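User: I'm writing a tutorial on reading structure tokens. Could you give me a worked example: one chain, its sequence, then its tokens, then a sentence or two explaining what the tokens reveal?
Assistant: Sure. Here is the example chain.
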Amino acid sequence: MRTHRTTVALGATLLAVMTLAACVQGPEMPTPTPSATRSVTPSPTPPAPSATPTADPTPEVIPFAIDCESLIDPDTMYAFDPNFSLLGTFTPDAGSLAAEAQAASGTVCRWVHGTNGVTIDVAVADLPADAASSRIAALDSAGSSVGDYGARGYFSAAGGVGQAQAFPSHYWVSIASPIFSAPGDAGVLMGDVVAALP
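And here are its predicted structure tokens:
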């Protein structure tokens, strides 16, 4: 009798414990955090090197300085016309051959007529070969070649001014004046200048 009660009581106790155990939750397990995904960002492709335009090379300049009275002897100018006298420092007219020679670091000289103010501009520049060739080609194209200057020579008129040009060796000589109307008008002076060059 006692054994039966004990068994019943034990069973009831066991059932109560099991029920209680079912109600009690175990410790909550942490939810696993997904590991951070490492994103691989492709490194930017460096831009292709741009074609840098090559700057035009600076034109070569060969300075040339000489005394104006060495280019044309005072006696030669006196024989040409005694009324012309050498002017001191002056600024060549814009766009003139003398201005171009001055820009090329050459020597420019001006004689002025004492009565009427007419001028004779003489200019000499030592040109690089390519610059001289370009200028000669342009003059050849213009058909202004003459043969009486003691060197490769040309004569033309622009704006009422006669322009004689010669290319002895590597030099470029120009003589310009309103009194020149034909190649021979500048012949004596051009001959003096060409003979004076070193």
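What the tokens reveal: The helical segments are 2-23, 68-71, 74-80, 97-103, 129-142, 187-196. Residues 1-24, 34-40 have pLDDT under 50 and may be disordered.
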